[in-house]
Design brief:
single chain; alpha/beta; Rossmann fold; seven-stranded mixed beta sheet; two-stranded antiparallel sheet; 8 helices; about 35% helix
Length: about 325
């Protein structure tokens, strides 16, 4: 375990840095609840996640989160005792952030399955912020289609209302449904969340700070409702390679479907597909990463840092 990580001019880091071997020991004697079939179902395209990584990385993480959930319950009990009230616990909310193609969706799905196996959190829901993107027609009207995924392409007020309602204990909260096939909101479908024990909110910008109101008043950020937050990190050249590899793989799957928004890319040669993917990356995804996503890394409670082979090699856990 390392406690010496520092940043130039910043003094000691607020994070404890652990390598994978040290981290893996923190799961004590917990039994691995997932099998190979679960991993194949949950991992993303071209993501080499395996049972070893789940055991060494996600099993300890699920134990840590279980401890946080228990601590939140104790704090709730103390507060209600002080107030002389009897109120239900509100859902424990976890934010998962990171770049396009870094594997944050896989992380969110694995955590959902792991946390569901703990006896005190059987009801775990996962919501992605894709559903809060403005519909394509609205993005076109605003001139934002080439900035899809940037903060201004989301209906942030709707996302705030959703997370606030869930955190406030609402019996049922609904969110828009997003199709990665059609690359748009599906008007006739919704995601329904019914008082979960844990809600995982996954998205590019979920750790972004609040924007001040025009009158100078402080605003609210989605992360203000998080009880725990995770940033999935990797070096930018590695993420670019993963994005290109995924683009190549999608030509023969999702892109090949006639109803796919990206069907026009299905017939590209390898060289054409690589050039197209790199162009999209450098025009849209890399600027968004550098300008908006990466600056939020230091706001996370836990940073999962990946090597070039997509494996998680070290963890930075905030001390307080």
């Amino acid at each position: 375990m390392s406690l010496q990580r520092t940043e130039p001019g910043d003094g000691a880091s607020p994070f404890v840095e652990l390598d994978r071997q040290t981290w893996s020991r923190l799961s004590a004697e917990i039994t691995q609840p997932l099998d190979e079939a679960d991993i194949l179902r949950l991992r993303g395209l071209d993501d080499p996640l395996d049972l070893k990584e789940v055991s060494e990385v996600y099993l300890p993480l699920s134990r840590l989160l279980n401890l946080y959930v228990a601590a939140a319950g104790q704090l709730h009990a103390a507060t209600t005792t002080f107030l002389g009230e009897r109120t239900q616990r509100t859902p424990f909310v976890i934010g998962v952030a990171g770049s396009v193609a870094v594997g944050k969706s896989t992380t969110a799905r694995i955590l959902r399955e792991m946390l569901r196996r703990w006896p005190d959190t059987p009801n775990v829901e996962l919501i992605t912020t894709d559903g809060f993107l403005y519909p394509n027609a609205e993005l076109e009207r605003r001139g934002l289609m080439q900035r899809k995924g940037f903060p201004e392409s989301y209906d942030r007020r709707a996302l705030l209302r959703f997370v606030s309602a869930v955190k406030g204990g609402a019996e049922e909260v609904r969110a828009p449904w997003y199709s990665h096939l059609t690359y748009d909101i599906v008007p006739e479908r919704e995601v329904v969340v019914n008082r979960p024990d844990v809600l995982i909110v996954e998205g590019l910008n979920v750790l972004a700070p609040a924007r001040p109101h025009r009158d100078g008043r402080a605003g609210l950020a989605v992360s203000d409702f998080f009880d725990f937050s995770i940033y999935v990190d990797a070096k930018t050249p590695s993420i670019e390679k993963w994005y290109v590899d995924r683009f190549l793989s999608l030509r023969g799957s999702a892109f090949a479907k006639p109803e796919s928004y990206f069907h026009r890319y299905a017939s590209l040669s390898d060289a054409e597909a690589i050039q197209t993917a790199r162009d999209i990356w450098h025009r849209i995804n890399e600027p968004n990463l550098i300008q908006n996503v990466l600056p939020t890394r230091g706001r996370a409670r836990l940073v999962l840092s990946k090597d070039a082979d997509h494996s998680i090699r070290r963890m930075l856990l905030r001390k307080t």
